[in-house]
Write a structure and sequence with these properties.
By secondary structure, this protein is α+β, with helices and mostly antiparallel strands. The chain has three domains: 173 residues, Formiminotransferase-cyclodeaminase, Chain B, domain 1, CATH 3.30.990.10; 80 residues, Alpha-Beta Plaits, CATH 3.30.70.670; 36 residues, no CATH class. It has nine helices and eleven strands. Strands 1, 2, 3, 4, 5, 6 and 7 form a seven-stranded mixed β-sheet that branches. Helix 1 runs antiparallel to helix 2 and helix 2 packs parallel to helix 3. The longest helix is centred in the middle third of the chain and has 19 residues. It is globular, with a radius of gyration of 20 Å.
């Protein structure tokens, strides 16, 4: 593979697999991902959703190799004709976003996504769709649009012109299709309300999401989780809308409904820069950056020599 980026380039990948119940399969997926130079940073599995989300980071070449090997395991082990879960899915290795971390651009990640897609299509014989920054057509940018109707509809429609995959054969087997793309770092963040009324969470989600004129770069849903109303948020670009803005807006809207915020949860990881934004906001330190955090400053000076 040609190297377009500097030798210290780091990317993250957050592959989502349609398996959240069988521990042996989940372990095999996690093992396969950890190619040389790739670190497994976070792992979460949900039995009800029947889904596993793994977070890895490393040099681009290693990450692509690990993702290919994990897609192979997923295709061998997961049968979408029998798989059931609460989470929508198009394939065994359902969605594979590549995220630039250091020394690499979003467009370079999109090119890496295309390379991975081509290899999965050619060597594993799976249909591949490119989304977000790697999308080949505008109607495929949005993940929800690519996945609409899920695996079951794809089985019926893959031979139609608008469902032609970007790579791989236009036929669907038990492993379904793989959706691969590139996107900026996304913060997945859920806010629980002191209420069991899902309509309040839905109203807040509608008010804050960008698609209905709310906050830029925010996607949101109102859900009922274990009897508690939850505003489920994907912050697509925390530089456009910082976390404190999201939190304060949700808190203010909840208060209008006479409801407090109980707690929130972070799914996966968030960048240090986003944490620094929160500190800058609440401590009223406009010039505060990660370099003012001692561990980060130490890490940067140690890394400077390599």
């Amino acid at each position: 593979m040609h190297c377009m980026h500097d030798s210290n380039a780091l990317i993250e990948a957050v592959p989502n697999f349609s398996e959240g119940r069988r521990a042996d399969v989940i372990n095999r997926l996690a093992q396969a991902l950890q190619a040389p130079g790739v670190s497994l940073l976070h792992q979460t599995s949900d039995a009800e959703h029947n889904r596993t989300v793994l977070t890895v980071a490393g040099a681009p070449e290693g990450v692509l190799e690990g993702l290919f090997q994990a897609a192979r395991v997923a295709a061998q082990e997961i049968n979408l004709f029998t798989q059931r879960g609460a989470h929508p899915r198009l394939g065994a290795a359902d969605v594979v976003p590549l995220i630039p971390l250091e020394g690499v651009t979003l467009e370079e990640c999109a090119e890496l996504a295309r390379q991975l897609g081509r290899r999965i299509g050619d060597e594993l014989g799976l249909p591949v769709y490119l989304y977000e920054a790697a999308a080949t057509r505008p109607e495929r940018r949005n993940l929800a649009d690519v996945r609409r109707g899920e695996f079951e509809r794809l089985v019926e429609e893959i031979d139609q012109p608008e469902r032609q995959p970007d790579y791989g054969p236009a036929r669907v087997g038990p492993a379904g299709a793989v959706i691969i793309g590139a996107r900026p770092f996304l913060i997945a963040y859920n806010v629980f309300l002191e209420s069991a009324d899902v309509r309040i969470a839905q109203a807040i989600a509608r008010a804050i999401r960008a698609s209905s004129g709310g906050l830029p770069a925010v996607k949101a849903l109102g859900l009922l989780v274990d009897g508690q109303a939850q505003v489920s948020i994907n912050l697509v670009d925390f530089k456009q809308t910082p976390l404190p803005v999201v939190m304060e807006t949700v808190t203010a809207l909840a208060a209008q409904h006479g409801v407090g915020v109980a707690h929130s949860e972070l799914i996966g990881l968030m960048p240090l820069e986003a944490v620094a934004q929160v500190a800058a906001h609440y401590l009223k330190l406009p010039d505060f950056t990660p370099m003012r955090i001692v561990e980060h400053a130490l890490q940067m000076t140690r890394g400077a020599g390599c």
